[in-house]
């Protein structure tokens, strides 16, 4: 049975069983959509299959791949760089020892380092002592009390989407959606769908509408 699809065509979002919608990113698997912020066209997502300590220490994490034709990271996005297969602690400069990830003894003497994108002076320095680097988005002002590298990464991150601005349509009294047979944005007004907005003072009266993502709950 084909999965129920929701959201803007091409965004690969599935909705079923009244749970949080899932977005699939190419080559990176499924992510849960926790919150949608229509005002700035962004949403908070996290991995449907969370990282664990073994992922962080076993050199199995890959850099995330984001379809740039549909999504982009916010300008203030902080990234976490994981450096794998580094030299032993005894060979590692003291300044880099601060960024060492605590791993089980079963992973041997090779070291994993964790640095943020604002650790400018140490990032290029760390690459000299490690064989592999993976870059992942880290949370930006998201609530959560998880600690450790995997806990921080599992809080997810903010992703912005590219499409027509829904706020212009809503401000004119319309509702945002898209055409039945096309992927083009539509502003649904009282008289008919329009390209971007309704005339001032006109309110939407249709009862059925395909939303951009999910009909937001209004208090």
UniProtKB/TrEMBL annotation:
First-listed, main subcellular location of the protein, grouped into a coarse class: membrane
Enzyme class, broadest EC rank: transferase
Places the protein is found: Membrane
EC code(s) of this entry: 2.7.11.1
One Pfam family from the record: GUB_WAK_bind
GO CC annotation: membrane
Domain Wall-associated receptor kinase C-terminal: 121-192
Name of the protein: non-specific serine/threonine protein kinase
GO terms of molecular function: polysaccharide binding; protein serine/threonine kinase activity
PANTHER family: OS01G0690200 PROTEIN (PTHR33138), WALL-ASSOCIATED RECEPTOR KINASE C-TERMINAL DOMAIN-CONTAINING PROTEIN (PTHR33138:SF27)
Membrane topology: Single-pass membrane protein
């Amino acid at each position: 049975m084909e999965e129920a699809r929701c959201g803007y065509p091409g965004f690969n979002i599935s909705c079923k069983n009244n749970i949080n919608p899932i977005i699939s990113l190419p080559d990176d698997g499924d992510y849960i959509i926790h919150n949608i912020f229509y005002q700035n066209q962004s949403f908070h997502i996290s991995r449907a299959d969370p990282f664990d300590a073994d992922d962080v220490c076993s050199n199995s994490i890959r850099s995330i791949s984001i379809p740039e034709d549909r999504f982009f990271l916010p300008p203030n996005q902080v990234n976490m760089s994981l450096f794998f297969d580094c030299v032993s602690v005894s060979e590692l400069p003291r300044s880099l020892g601060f960024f060492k990830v605590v791993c089980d003894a079963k992973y041997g003497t090779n070291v994993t380092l964790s640095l943020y994108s604002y650790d400018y002076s140490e990032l290029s320095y760390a690459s000299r002592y490690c064989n592999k680097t993976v870059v992942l988005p880290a949370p930006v002002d998201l609530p959560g009390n998880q600690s450790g590298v995997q806990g921080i990464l599992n809080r997810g991150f903010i992703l912005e989407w590219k499409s027509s601005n829904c706020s212009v349509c809503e401000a004119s009294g319309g509702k945002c959606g898209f055409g039945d047979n096309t992927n083009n944005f539509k502003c649904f007004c009282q008289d008919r769908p329009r390209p971007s907005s309704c005339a001032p003072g006109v309110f939407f009266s249709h009862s059925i509408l395909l939303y951009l993502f999910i009909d937001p709950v209004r208090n």
